Amino acid sequence: MMFIDELRRHINSQIQVATPGQVLAGVLAAVNAEVITLRTSTFPGYDGAEDVMIRIENIGYVRVFE
Fold first, then answer.
1. Is the model's pLDDT at 14 over the cut of 80?
2. Comparing C-alpha atoms, which of 51, 4, 2, 61 is closest to residue 29?
3. What is the pTM of this model?
4. Could you report the per-residue pLDDT of 31-45, keeping only the tens digit for each?
5. Strand-pair partners of 23
6. What CATH number does the domain containing 34 carry?
7. Measured distance CA(27)–CA(14) in Å, rounded
8. How many domains are contained in the chain?
């Protein structure tokens, strides 16, 4: 629960998330007990975003850019 509570403190922050298969960057949009929602840019430099849901159990690390 401490990990989830810490993530919730960073909603609307720019983060990087590593999972076993990829590293994603974007804005942390939501956190619940099972998944986080990361808002990523579909094409850097252009408008538009895609929400990516990542299971908490698949997260290797999170880096917060403040």
1. yes
2. 51
3. 0.88
4. 999 999 999 976 666
5. 18
6. 2.30.30.100
7. 4
8. 1
- 54 membership: H or E segment, kind and range: strand 49-55
In which domain, by residue range, is 16 found?
2-65
Nearest by Cα to 18 from 5, 2, 64, 66: 64
Measure the CA–CA gap between 26 and 49, rounded to whole angstroms: 9
Place of tokens 């579909």: 42
Structure tokens, 39: 């808002």
pLDDT at residue 1 is higher than 90: no
- The Cα diameter of the chain in Å comes to 36
Nearest-angstrom CA–CA distance, 8 and 29: 9
